[in-house]
From TrEMBL:
Presence of the UniProt keyword Transmembrane in the record: yes
Transmembrane segments: 35-57, 69-86, 106-123, 135-156, 210-229, 257-275, 282-302, 372-396, 427-444
Source organism of this protein record: Stackebrandtia endophytica
Keywords: Membrane, Transmembrane, Transmembrane helix
Taxonomic lineage: Bacteria, Bacillati, Actinomycetota, Actinomycetes, Glycomycetales
Keyword Ribonucleoprotein: no
Protein name as catalogued: O-antigen ligase-like membrane protein
Length: 454
């Protein structure tokens, strides 16, 4: 696999250029994410980073809009229009005043807005200002951070602390469950569905599902950064070691979604490489799979895998939430309900809320068990068509890009479509997915410019 021209193989990594030059806001956002997490900004930093990025875009004489972005803008418009349905109370949901739903709806709309701004910011950086290789490296760094957080959650799963941002908030605000999920760092989500407390890695992304989603999106960029650019063999050995070590938190997360995503990603890479005549990838991926499987079989990780397969604890709850949401969508099929709702009862009980004997009873969020179900419920068929249409259009648009960026980028786009059945995308996974989209377009645009110069 190749990246393209010699221009993309050179990289100025001087601190002054990285931290103060063009694209510095993107570098600060990704390079220092562990710091933002410790400070209690992990759930807010994307929103904050979008502010200077928006200012930078406004100052430009011309803002380039990449191909197929119209689908995404149409989706964002549907998100805004669907908020007109916040006053509706669909069947089998908890009734409340419409203004109580405004904060959640505004938060999601702001999330899509910040994703849009970050995408356009990355797209409008030139190769000279911000080389593609730098963005690839930052995505690979994000994978490193995710694996490190996974190890932290695996071995120090009960670690949590009051962040500086959390300490500055009024006690009543800091105690709110939603606010706490944004500003309170914790290494893992501790669950007991196996009959004992089991930490499931979450750092630095807040939730185990988000952790797994981000890992699947960024893992391939470690390979691109280490093996598709001229780097020292020490870095390549480090990349291999990282991917081997990543097996531990991946298994211990008991996150079936990331298991499936990583396997699917490898299959897509194998297929695309084989189609362009590079059959050797089958041997490499086969060896990697054998090493990973062997590591699981000869270590206690196999016990974790079997225990998870024997305890599909979330299946009933997800099924209840999905069926209830789909029954309700008939009351507002085109625009949905503008935001999520709480269900009356659950698959475990008709109780409106959780009890001591049934902590998972009642009040389950409709639209909280996957991006597809959230888009359908909150934004209706119009939202689903524009959202899915965007990723399908991107896949079609860049189907002939057989470079490393093109192949790994196509994997990420496919995962955005499969993950929507079991992962929610806002906000970190959506940002990384859209950065990959920006990278795909820049790879075509900047590669063509470099070819014209030669």
């Amino acid at each position: 696999m190749t990246i393209g021209s010699p221009l993309s193989a050179t990289l100025d990594t001087t601190p002054h250029r990285l931290l103060t030059g063009p694209g510095a806001a993107l570098t600060w956002l990704l390079l220092f994410f562990p710091l933002w997490w410790v400070l209690g900004l992990g759930g807010l930093i994307f929103y904050l980073a979008a502010i200077p990025m928006a200012v930078s875009l406004v100052r430009r004489r011309h803002i380039e809009v990449p191909p197929m972005f119209g689908f995404w803008l149409a989706f964002c418009l549907v998100v805004l229009v669907s908020m007109s349905a916040l006053n509706l109370d669909p069947a089998n949901t908890v009734a409340e005043n419409w203004w109580g739903r405004v904060p959640g709806a505004v938060y999601r709309a702001a999330g899509y807005l910040c994703v849009t701004v970050i995408t356009l910011y990355a797209v409008n950086l030139t190769e000279r200002e911000y080389p593609r290789r730098l963005l690839v490296n930052l995505l690979a760094w994000t994978a490193v951070v995710t694996v490190a957080g996974g190890l932290l959650g695996t071995y120090w799963g009960h670690l949590e602390f009051t962040s500086p941002v959390e300490a500055l908030l009024p006690p009543g605000v800091a105690a709110d469950g939603f606010v706490k999920s944004l500003v309170h760092p914790q290494a893992a989500q501790v669950m007991d569905f196996l009959g004992y407390e089991a930490p499931r890695p979450a750092a630095p992304w807040g939730y185990t599902n988000t952790w797994g989603n981000v890992l699947a999106i960024t893992a391939g960029w470690v390979v691109v950064a280490a093996f598709c650019f001229p780097v020292r063999w020490g870095w390549r050995l480090g990349a291999v070691a990282l991917l081997v070590i990543a097996v531990i938190p991946t298994v211990e997360s008991m996150n079936r979604g990331v298991w499936f995503n990583l396997a699917l990603g490898a299959a897509i890479v194998a297929l695309r490489m084989t189609l362009i005549g590079k059959v050797w990838i089958l041997g490499v991926l086969g060896l990697a799979g054998a090493i990973g499987l062997g590591l699981v079989l000869v270590t206690p990780l196999s016990t974790t895998v079997m225990a998870r397969l024997d305890n599909p604890h979330s299946d009933d709850g997800r099924g209840f939430a999905t069926s209830t949401a789909m029954e309700a969508i008939g009351e507002s099929p085109i625009l949905g309900f503008g935001s999520t709702r709480k269900a009356i009862g659950s698959g475990d009980s008709i109780a409106v809320g959780p009890t001591h004997d049934c902590p998972r009873c009642g009040g389950r969020t409709l639209g909280g068990n996957g991006q597809l179900w959230q888009v359908l419920f909150a934004h209706g068929l119009a939202g689903a068509v524009t959202y899915i249409g965007f990723f399908c259009a991107v896949l079609w648009r860049f189907r002939r890009d057989h470079s490393a960026i093109g192949i790994v980028g196509s994997v990420v786009m496919v995962l955005s479509l499969t993950s929507m059945f079991y992962y929610n995308a806002l906000v970190a996974p959506a940002v990384f997915t859209m950065l990959v989209y920006a990278l795909l377009w820049r790879n075509e645009r900047d590669g063509a410019l470099e070819g014209a110069r030669r």
